[in-house]
Amino acid sequence: MATTRITIQGPIFDGRAAAAASDFCDSISNEVAEVARTWIATEAHGFDRSGRGGTGAAAAGLEGPIGSNGQYVVRGGIRKGSYSWPWLEGSSERNRTTPFAGYHVFRRTRQRLRRQIGPLTELRMQEFIERMGGSET
Hints:
Layout: H1 11-14, H2 16-44, H3 57-60, E1 62-66, E2 71-74, H4 85-89, H5 93-97, H6 105-131
């Protein structure tokens, strides 16, 4: 009769790798959301289709972050002193009945992020790979 004893240890087995992967997802979600918010706010400060000059109120309508998943709140409505983001974006029912087609800043930001998400995440990856017990070679 033979007896074999196997000891399994390390980040994969003690939960450190899973915790690091979860932290990475939360961290990158927040970072990407903040980058997107900054890009949207920067463009929103320049909204001036009317020729009267931008007020910055649309940019001020971006609030957040909320929680650890990178979500932001976009507030606004159709009332004095507030902007309706769906109308500004060009995605509301109102855009179909007015000549204003929208700025499409959210759509352009989404497209820009899709092109740049790889380099953004790769910059942060090494820190979390090391926490998982590995190294990039």
